[in-house]
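For consistency, the fold was encoded as tokens, which produced the following:
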Amino acid sequence: MTSIKNKLRSEIAKEKKKYSDDELLIMSEEVFSVFEIIGKFAETKKICIYNAIPGEVQTRAFVEKWRNEKEFYFPVTKEEEIHLCKIEEDTEYCKSPIGIFEPVGEEFREYGQLDMIIVPGMAFDRKGNRLGRGKGYYDRFLKKTKALKIGVCFDFQLLDSIPSDEYDVKMDMIVSENELIW
């Protein structure tokens, strides 16, 4: 199964290269325009969201737009696990060993208080399966909370089927620039 997943990761990475950073930014805004119409979003107070790397659905504009109405928490990777840090206006960031700019600050451990987790992925399928980068960080983290799990992606990352096993955590919902799947 690992070789199939790696092949899918490679195919999606090639597809991403067909788009400029500006095109992906516009597509990201479209993803969050669809996201904002979700009824559960209006009720949400505490959101775990990722700090996007190039090629992922970009999150910065969304966080800035809603910063005064919602509490946002970014993942921080420590010893192959995800921990969370609340994002404040003056939050500082440092580059992690895996190349992601992560917040520096007090760790948030009350995962049960999260209302929603916005999850990146290399690809998703219409049954809620997610293909990550292969390290299992998100799958281990998502098992620790009952918060609504929403995968965000571009249309070209939506596949008919993704192989999954007992370690993979399904999404409750998937949002792309043209689709809302639940």
Q: What stands out?
A: Residues 2-16 form the longest helix (15 residues). Residues 64 and 156 are 26 Å apart (CA to CA). The domain at 1-72+113-122+139-155 is CATH 3.40.50.10420 (Rossmann fold). The chain has a mean pLDDT of 91.
